[in-house]
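hey m, so remember when u said the C-alpha cells were messed up on ur end? i reran from scratch. heres the input so u can diff it against urs
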Amino acid sequence: MFGRVKPLDAILATAEKKSLHRSLGAFQLTMLGVGAVIGTGIFVLTAEAAQKAGPGMMISFMIAGFVCAVSALCYAEMAAMVPVSGSAYTYSYAVMGELVAWMVGWALILEYAVAAGAVSVGWSGYVVGLIENAFSINIPDLLVRGPYDGGVINLPAMLIAGLVTWLLVIGTRESASVNAILVSIKVTALTLFVILAVPVMKMENFEPFSPLGFSGIGAAAASIFFAYVGFDAVSTAAEETKNPQRNMPIGLIGSLGICTIFYLLVAAGVIGSVGAQPVMVGGVGLEPGSPELAQQCAAIADQAVVCSKEALAWTLREIGYLQIGNLIGLAAGLALPSVILMMMFGQTRIFFVMSRDGLLPEVFSKIHPRYNTPHVITIITGVFVALFAAFFPVGLLANISNSGTLFAFAAVSIAVIVIRRKEPERHRPFRTPAIYLTAPLSLAGCLYLFYKLDWKSQQLFVIWAVIGLVVYFAYSRSRSHVGRGMVEVHEDDSDIPPQPVPPIN
C-alpha cells in the first residue's frame, strides 16, 4: 500500500533548477492570502450559514478559520520542503506512497470541479438578481434554479461554466494585473457593505443567537469552510519568501485573521440589519437548498435573507440602498467568473499531473495543436461543471467540494508528521511550530468538519472514493510510471502550459 513512493530527492533536484528569487515579505504574503481567500464563499454562502446556525454563524466563521489556520501551518512545511506543482497530491506521493496520493488527487478532482459548479450557481444568483432589479423584470425561477431549489434548470450557471470552458480551451489565463483588479473589486464591494450595514444593526436581531444549538453552528462551519479555501496560495509561495520561518506564519495567520474579521463584520451586518433567523417548521430547521425550504420561502415571497440567492445585495436593498445593492451584484458578476476559471484550471492541472504519472489515460494530457492547451480534459471538466451548476443548489455543491478539500488537508496533516519522523535531517525552510500539537489539531479539525457535513455530501464522497479505488486497481496501478520503474519528474515545467506526454513503447 505504501510501497510505491515517488523519490523525494528526484522531485527536489528538478525543483532546485527553478531557484526562484526570494522576494516576498510578511506583508506581501498576507496580501496574497487575503486576495486568494476573500471571494465566493462570503458572497454566496451567507444565506446557507444563516439557515443552519442563525446569528450563531459568527462562531462558525471562527471555527472554520481556526481549522484553516492549523491546516495552513502543516501545509506550509510541505510546500516549503517540496516546492513543486501538484500540491497535496505530490506531497502524498513523496511521503505516503502511490495509493494515498491517488486518493488525494481523486479528492482534489472532486474539489475543483464541484467548487467551480458552486461558484457558477453563486454567480447566477447575483446576476439574475441584478437584472431583475435593474430592469424591473421577473425571470421565471424555472430557468434560473435547479430542481432542488424550486426550478427546473439553472441556465445562467450553465452559460458561465460553458463560457469559462471555452476561454480555457483557447488558452486565456488571467494576468496578475487583471487578478489584482478583480480582487480589489471584491474587497471594495465587501468593505462598502460593512460600512453601510453595520451602523444600522439592531441588537435584538441577534436573539436567539443559536436557534438550532451548537450542532447548527458546527454544520454552518462545515459549509463556511468553502469561504476560506485558497489560503494554500500562501503556502505554495514558500520558496519565494524571505526568511520563511518568520514570514510564513505571519502571512498565513495574518491573512486568515484579516479574512475572519472581514467575514465577521459582513455576517454581523447581515444579522443586525435584516435578521438571519432560519426558516423552521415545527421547531425544526429546514435543509438549505431543499424543495421544502423553497416552498416555505415562496410562501413568504422570499422575504428572508436565508431565501436569497444574493444575500449581500438583497440585504442592502432591504435597508434602502437599492442602487448600491445592484452594484454589489455587479461586483460579484464581474469577479466570480475569474474564480471559476482558476478552479477549472486547477482541475485540469491535477488531471494533467496524474496523467503524466501514468495514473490516468494519456488522452487526458492531449494538447490542442493550435491553442497548446489540454483541450480534451478541459472540455470534459467543463461539461461536468455545467451539469453540476445546472441541477444542484450551491450549498450542496460547496459541501461536496469541502469533503474533497478536507480529505486532502487531512492527508497533508499526516504526511508532515510522517516525513518529520522518517527524515528529520532533511532541510526544511519552514518548520511547522509545535508539530505534535498543530498537526493532530489540523487532522481533528478536518475530521470534525467532515462529520458536520450533511449526510448526502458524506455519502457522495464515499461513493466517489469507492469509484476511485476501483479505477486505481482496475487501471492506474498497472500503468503507473513509478510502479513500472519509470521515475519521471518534470516539475521544472510546472509554470508553463501542459505539454503532451510522449508515447510509451
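this time it looks ok to me. The chain has a mean pLDDT of 84. if urs says something different then somethings off w ur setup not the seq
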